[in-house]
Design goal:
mainly beta, eight-stranded antiparallel β-barrel, three-stranded antiparallel β-sheet, 1 helix, 12 strands
Length: 211
């Protein structure tokens, strides 16, 4: 995934003209994005179950809005995003006594964030930036103990988001971006001494319209 990101940055840097910016990055914008999500939660409590048993890769798609200010070659501002996550429920089983199991499941449906971003204009059309802020997601979990007991939960968790990207202005009011964001959240308790620590990344391509 990172090879795609770095290759995209290099390609746009080569083709981007090097004219003066003239303040075109200041203002509001909105757009849509699509890409891939990479879920890699931590897990504790199962005898032979690990966090890797719940890793998943899926489609991501959503929308974003923001505002930028430009000062010379520097651009800074804020952006809010909402993405649907196409992860399917992942289940891990802990074999006990000839095949009987404890089972745990984990799933995420969406993630939202509010982030600051700041960057440097490599040319009048190419912005390289970093971004960080807060995020919210909804975590679905369940357990089924072979000795008895089963439950499920659907909980909202607040966490952090950070990443980097580039944005290329290909027309006076239009631009596209490639962006990788990593999300970290507080743990979700499934049962006594059994919990997940949600973590995921998204690699998106997006298109923006500036008002």
């Amino acid at each position: 995934m990172f090879k795609i990101f770095y290759a995209s940055v290099a390609l746009v840097a080569i083709v981007a003209p090097a004219k003066a910016q003239d303040g075109n990055w200041t203002g509001y914008y909105a757009g849509a994005e699509i890409g891939a999500g990479f879920s890699h939660p931590g897990f504790s409590g199962g005898g032979v179950v690990s966090g890797s048993d719940f890793n998943d890769t899926a489609f991501v798609g959503g929308v974003f809005v923001g505002h930028d200010w430009q000062s010379g070659q520097f651009v800074y501002g804020g952006v809010a995003s909402f993405d649907f996550l196409g992860f399917h429920e992942k289940t891990g089983e802990d074999p006990i006594f000839g095949g009987k199991t404890n089972s745990y499941s984990y799933d995420l449906d969406w993630v939202a964030s509010a982030r600051a971003r700041a960057g440097f204009l490599a040319s009048d059309q190419l912005l390289l930036y970093g971004t960080a802020g807060v995020a919210v997601t909804r975590v679905k979990t369940s357990f089924d103990f072979f000795l008895g007991g089963a439950d499920s939960s659907n909980k909202t968790r607040v966490g952090g988001a950070f990443g980097a990207g580039f944005e290329y202005a290909f027309a006076p009011k239009w631009s596209f971006k490639t962006e990788y964001i990593e999300y970290l959240f507080d743990k979700v308790e499934v049962a006594n001494s059994v919990d997940f620590k949600p973590r995921l990344g998204t690699l998106n391509l997006g298109i923006s319209y500036r008002f």
